[in-house]
Amino acid sequence: MNFPFLIDPVAFSFGALEVRWYGIILGTAALVGLLLAVQEGKRFGIKPDFFMDLLLLGVPSAIIGARIYYVAFTWDEYKNNLGAIFKIWEGGIAIYGALIGAFICGILYFRYKGYNFWRIADICAPSLIAGQMIGRWGNFMNQEAYGGPVEESFLRDTLHLPGFIVNQMNVNGVFHHPTFLYESLWNLVGLILLLVIRRQKFLRAGELLAGYFIWYSIGRFFIEALRTDSLAYQGPAWLESLINALWSPMTVLFEQGYLDPAYGNIRISQLLALFLVIIGIVFIVVRRVNGWANVRYSDPIVSTKEAGQDGGSANASADKTAKTEQP
Predict the structure, then answer these.
(1) What is the pLDDT, as a whole number, of residue 185?
(2) d(C-alpha 137, C-alpha 22), whole Å
(3) Do residues 109 and 55 lie in contact, with contact meaning Cβ atoms separated by under 8 Å?
(4) What is the Cβ-side half-sphere exposure of residue 106, based on CA atoms within 13 angstroms?
(5) pLDDT class of 314 with cuts at 50, 70, 90
(6) Which of 57, 75, 105, 122 is the most buried (most CB within 10 A)?
(7) Which string of DSSP letters, residue by residue, matches 88-134?
(8) Helix, strand or coil for residue 2?
(9) 136 labelled as ligand-binding?
(10) Where do the annotations place a 1,2-diacyl-sn-glycero-3-phospho-(1'-sn-glycerol) binding (predicted)?
(11) 10 has which bridge partners?
(12) CB neighbours (10 Å) of residue 275?
């Protein structure tokens, strides 16, 4: 059955070539992230070309990582149709897989350029959350990554959402939680917090990235349980009980989205989100307690390779800082 007022996922066509909103939105997200990183990089004397090359390498790495992650956990859907693995425009990518791919690329690229990983990753943290904030609207266009069923009145009268969002949440005659919107708004607040925190004197190298993971993962933990398409696996009962207990305050307002028991009882993104929150907090506390967080976010950033080429007393103190940072 077709329903009126749905947004066509195809933005426009050139003959047989279709340009989808999904790709346009992801491209926009990447561009916004680039601009944020370039602007902040100027404060540390890092050339825009550095971030442009990072984008050219990082985006394909993120897409590949996101697709591999998703396909790995849904292999039964692809094992008899390998060609479908490459149809990413139809959706089916996982944000944690994208982060894994991007971070592997970043580690290699930063080392190649002679930069400390934590310093550049801190600069890129707001870009990451801004990209996720925008990218979720690609899921909206594709009518995917939504939550469990809700009444139309909840969307219109309780949440006061505009008609184009409410209509798009009508999937085969059933209205659903706009989890894409919940996560996008959560990321917007996170972006503002990161932009404010990075100007504070107390911030140490690596802590803005840790803050990004903590903030994003808290939101993802609670929002993920509303979805009906979560990647899952069959885990121990005690872990299922722990996750449900942590999520239980949300039951005052929401019900969890349906998860087929035959598919699994642990939502992978929830488990990974919980793990990242713990790791992020431990990372900050341990480094502070042991005196390892001796480099501030605002300290100069110097490439060991560029420092060796430039020389001179003008870069002496910055060069010393860079050497201290190198793992």
Answers:
(1) 98
(2) 8
(3) no
(4) 22
(5) very low
(6) 122
(7) GGG----HHHHHHHHHHHHHHHHHHHT--HHHHHHHHHHHHHHHHHH
(8) coil
(9) yes
(10) 136
(11) 20
(12) 12
pLDDT, average across residues 138-153 = 93
Q: Within a 10 A sphere around the Cβ of 292, how many other Cβ atoms?
A: 12
Tell which phi-psi region holds residue 50, choosing left (phi > 0), alpha (psi between -120 and 50) or beta.
Answer: alpha
* 104 CB-contact burial (10 Å; exposed 0-12 / middle 13-18 / buried 19+): middle
Higher pLDDT, 93 or 119: 119
CA distance 286 to 288: 5
- Tokens encoding 227: 């979805």
Tell me what percent of the residues of the chain surpass a pLDDT of 90: 73
**Would the pLDDT of 270 be above 80?**
yes
In residues, how long is the chain? Answer: 327
H/E/C letters for each residue in 275-307?
HHHHHHHHHHHHHHHCCCCCCECCCCCCCHHHH
Q: What is the pLDDT of residue 326?
A: 44
Which residue is listed with tokens 């809700």?
A: 150
Q: How far is CA 30 from the centre of its chain?
A: 12
Pair of tokens at residue 92:
């089916």
29 by Cβ neighbours in 10 Å (0-12 / 13-18 / 19+) ranks as buried
Q: Which helix (H) or strand (E) holds 257?
A: none
Based on the number of CB atoms within 10 Å of its own CB, is 187 exposed (0-12), middle (13-18) or buried (19 or more)? buried
